[in-house]
Amino acid sequence: MQQKKNVFPHLIEFYTATLLISTSGPLGRYINLPPPLTIFWRTVLAAIFLYIFCRWKKYSLIITNRRDFGKIILAGILFGTHWVTYFYALQLSNVAIGMLSIYTYPVITSFLEPLILKTRFKLYHLGLGLLVLLGIYLLVPDFSFENKYTKAVAFGVFSAFCYALRNIMMKPQVAKYNGSSLMFYQILTISILLSPMLFKHGSSGFLEQWKPLVVLALFTTSIGHTLFLMSFRRFSITTASIMNSAQPVFGIIIGMLFLKEYPSLLTVFGGILILAAVIIENIVSLKD
């Protein structure tokens, strides 16, 4: 019984991370910059915030194993690819389609995690993943390959694959190193790789939109993604992925409030299916 009670603080932490990360969709729609440039400024600012935080909390930034460091860098590359393609999906569509297209990643994760981490495959995860996938299908209005929404979904699904793979790669590292330190090296990798965007586009875009960029870097990235990464200590990657399916629902609500993007009736039905999967996963996780 004590073990079950101890999971509630982890759930609170997890859904705080989910709420913060869900702001990425509305912010990705609001910020009017090329996605690679947006992600460059996002990671530069987040790297500064995380470095100051790690020094303040006296977290070690030393990665003792070279192989671990290589995996962290590779995870950073996958993370950056996920962010750039995700923001392309947002710009090509809207908050609902952009956010929900990447939520094929719980389904992808449920297949990849047992193969890569040699964990036991749980059949009910496949069922919940399919439920989430059906919800996403209802949320996307048109799968014709002749419109920009289909391109947005394609970007979103590729983004989902990169995100699932990155999360699985980081699972063993979270047990060894502090989450803020891991996030610092990943976003530093992204900022270095995207630095040529600054020479191509200049800094005028940052001066015009520094406020939403700071919010994206501090709350969405530095705090939200660090908390989400730390949740891997308590939950499996597949469990965290399916529970995190509440994120697009939060994002759509934020988009409604601030961007006046209202979902269709099918979007509501899709959201209900996604929330059903989240509730079932929460119940099961409390019993583990």
From TrEMBL:
Organism name: Abyssalbus ytuae
Pfam families hit by this protein: EamA (PF00892)
Transmembrane segments: 7-27, 39-56, 68-89, 95-116, 123-140, 152-170, 182-199, 211-230, 242-259, 265-284
SUPFAM superfamilies recorded: Multidrug resistance efflux transporter EmrE (SSF103481)
InterPro entries in the record: EamA_dom, EmrE-like
Superkingdom, taxonomy of origin: Bacteria
PANTHER family for this protein: ACYL-MALONYL CONDENSING ENZYME-RELATED, MOBA-LIKE NTP TRANSFERASE DOMAIN-CONTAINING PROTEIN
GO cellular component terms, A-Z: membrane
Alphabetical UniProt keywords: Membrane, Transmembrane, Transmembrane helix
EamA domain residues: 16-139, 151-280
Protein name: DMT family transporter
